[in-house]
Design brief:
The protein has about 90 residues and is mainly α. It has helices at about 5-25, 30-35, 40-45, 55-65, 80-90. About 65% of the residues lie in helices and about 0% in strands.
Length: about 90
């Protein structure tokens, strides 16, 4: 995955998660409290400036009542495989 594709995916995820948080009427502070992540981390993630590790991603999904594998993306067809490789290489 090149940098341009990674940026596109970050922005897609950021929009999706921010919209979901707002739909649930959950503040960034409340999301940070639910996940154990810092408010600054949540803000950076929602602005596409932070790429969560698998553990953080799952915590955010759980807090927003999302199933990680069911999140819709409009990126390229091999997106899932690229993300799987990325997370395996950069796992925490």
């Amino acid at each position: 995955m090149n940098e341009e594709e990674l940026l596109e995916v970050r922005q897609i995820m950021a929009r999706y998660f921010r919209q979901r948080r707002e739909e649930l009427n959950i503040s960034r502070n409340a999301l940070a409290e639910k996940t154990g992540l810092g408010v600054a981390t949540i803000k950076r993630f929602e602005n596409g400036m932070f790429w969560p590790g698998m553990k953080q991603y799952i915590l955010i999904c759980e807090a927003l009542n999302l199933v990680p594998a069911a999140i819709p993306f409009s990126a390229s067809g091999d997106f899932i495989e690229k993300m799987r490789r990325h997370w395996l290489i950069n796992k925490e």
